[in-house]
Design goal:
The structure holds 2 protein chains of 2 kinds.
Chain A: E1 3-10, E2 13-20, E3 27-32, E4 37-43, E5 51-57, E6 61-67, E7 75-77, E8 89-91, E9 97-99, E10 104-110, E11 118-123, E12 126-130, E13 138-139, E14 160-166, E15 174-179, E16 182-186, E17 194-195, E18 216-222, E19 225-233, E20 237-240, E21 248-249, E22 262-264, E23 272-274, E24 292-295, E25 303-305, E26 323-325, E27 333-336, E28 342-345, E29 353-356, E30 362-370
Antiparallel strand pairs in A: 1-2, 1-30, 2-3, 4-5, 5-6, 6-7, 8-9, 10-11, 11-12, 12-13, 14-15, 15-16, 16-17, 18-19, 19-20, 20-21, 22-23, 23-24, 24-25, 26-27, 27-28, 28-29
Chain B: E1 2-5, H1 8-14, E2 19-22, H2 30-40, E3 60-64, E4 67-68, H3 80-83, E5 89-93
Parallel strand pairs in B: 1-5
Antiparallel strand pairs in B: 1-2, 3-4, 3-5
The chains are: A mainly beta, B alpha+beta.
């Protein structure tokens, strides 16, 4: 029988939740790495027992942990992320040049085919790769050294590379997103990158349609349609049908189009999920009601999903890496909140229940569907 | 043997108790202690000082014989009490944050 494993990164440690295919009863393991910030943890699609963890601390810096037994035991691997060559500068919040400085790993994306190959998105924005299971990390410098790199500026959360999408049909194609530089794509395995921000409109930057400078919060794709991308921008939910070359807004009838996560149903490429947040000044759901919105038409028409979610006095946030889907026949949707709850729906979002509710603030949620 | 007291999170990371004992060749300084410590416990590389510049991380402090050595030159010899193992060298995480 299939099993589901949910990997939860929090401000104070990692937690692993497991259930059978019914997804009604959950076993919680953790905290792993108690007291450390776990920005992200993700399992290898090629070997689900291989899990990589970004473990960070304002005191003691970055660690990378690796498990080869599904999270029972861990091994610290290389934690040195050195920018290639002389890093140069980007722009600081006040518009002055600021040296590139490594701060932490925001996102780990294991290869679709090789458990020893992983991409890491870091702050200050850059992408690194290991091909030896984390024993060494090398930057793919073509991104950071893009001609626009010295113009990139941090978003409020830092200048982080937070999204990495690997194209399942083309191993040379990778999409990434940086707050607040925007989205980029490589078609040659990471040697060269191009900004893919045409169609984005950001009123808060000097040129609202600039090539770079957009605060992209998250991008998602369905495996069967890698040219169709969905984006939650700082404001606006966007869609591209040509691999990011052009974007159009699909916010439609959402109550607010500010938010952080976005994800796609495992079996329905046009079914998309977002969690609207009141505004960039008020990071909580509108009217104190926690509502996931689902579009079954690839955007524009959205329906609120509320059954089992708090509909009064709820003022949590859902961060960009804190939503995921499983690939069971009846698709499961999961998200974690800054209030420490992880909510799950085993029926594509129709009904929800907390599967754990008193964790530290949740930074990331990933799901593994195990045979 | 040199005695080194580690903060909680570095103990769990290295899988050791509150205090470790290490051999430090030559003159006992902050740098020679950290070199020996990192050689014995490679997971501690980058957690106390920067990988490349060897600069102390901002929220880490060093104490010896009840004195703050954090801003002393890394190659300044430490007191005999530390060099002869009568007193430990303390690595401390600053009390800050939540």
């Amino acid at each position: 029988m299939s099993k589901v494993r949910v990997l939860v990164g929090t401000r104070k440690g990692a937690f692993i939740l497991t259930s059978d295919g019914k997804r009604q009863n959950w076993e919680v393991s953790g905290p792993h790495f108690g007291g450390w910030e776990i920005y992200h943890m993700k399992g290898s699609p090629a070997d689900p027992n291989r899990i990589y963890v970004s473990q960070t601390s304002g005191w003691f810096g970055q660690q990378i942990q690796r498990s080869s037994d599904g999270g029972k035991t861990w091994e610290a691997v290389e934690n040195k992320f050195a920018y290639s060559g002389t890093p140069g500068t980007h722009l600081w919040y006040d518009g002055t040049p600021h040296p590139w400085e490594f701060k932490r790993v925001w996102h780990m994306e294991p290869s679709l085919t090789d458990p020893d190959t992983v991409y890491a998105g870091v702050e200050d924005a850059a992408i690194f790769k290991t091909a030896d299971g984390g024993k060494s990390w090398e930057e793919l410098p073509g991104l950071r050294t893009h001609a626009t790199g010295n113009k990139w500026q941090p978003g409020a959360g830092g200048m982080c590379l937070h999204t990495i999408l690997l194209d399942p049909k083309d191993p040379n194609r990778i999409f990434i997103a940086i707050s607040a530089a925007g989205a980029f794509r490589t078609d040659d395995g990471g040697k060269t990158w191009k900004p893919i921000n045409r169609g984005l409109h950001s009123q808060y930057i000097p040129n609202p349609t600039a090539e770079v400078g957009h605060c992209v919060h998250r991008i998602a794709m369905h495996r069967s349609k890698p040219n169709v991308l969905f984006m939650q921008k700082h404001w606006d939910v966007m869609r591209s049908d040509d691999g990011g070359d052009n974007w159009r807004e699909v916010s439609g009838d959402l109550p607010t189009d500010f938010g952080f996560p976005i994800d796609v149903h495992a079996h329905e490429p046009e079914t998309v999920y977002v969690v609207p947040i009141k505004s960039d000044s008020e990071h909580y759901p509108p009217d104190g009601k926690l509502r996931v919105y689902r579009s079954k038409s690839g955007g524009n028409e959205w329906e609120p999903l509320t059954k089992g979610l708090p509909q009064q006095d709820c003022y949590v946030n859902i961060l960009r890496d804190a939503m995921a889907v499983d690939s069971m026949d009846s698709c499961g949707i999961y998200f974690g909140t800054t209030g420490g709850q992880v909510y799950a729906s085993a029926d594509s979002g129709d009904t929800w229940a907390p599967i754990v509710r008193d964790l530290p603030a949740v930074l990331s949620v990933e799901v593994q569907t195990l045979k | 043997m040199i005695r080194v007291v580690l903060p909680h999170h570095l103990r769990t990371l290295a899988g050791v108790g509150r205090e470790v004992q290490i051999e430090v060749p030559g003159t006992v300084t902050q740098r020679s202690i950290l070199d020996a410590l990192e050689a014995s416990f490679p997971t501690l590389r980058g957690t106390i000082r920067d990988h490349d510049s060897a600069q102390r991380r901002p929220l880490v402090r060093f104490f010896a014989c009840e004195e703050d050595w954090s801003n002393e030159a890394p190659d300044k010899p430490l007191p005999d009490a530390v060099a002869f193992g009568r007193e430990p060298f303390f690595i401390v995480g600053a009390i800050a944050g939540g």
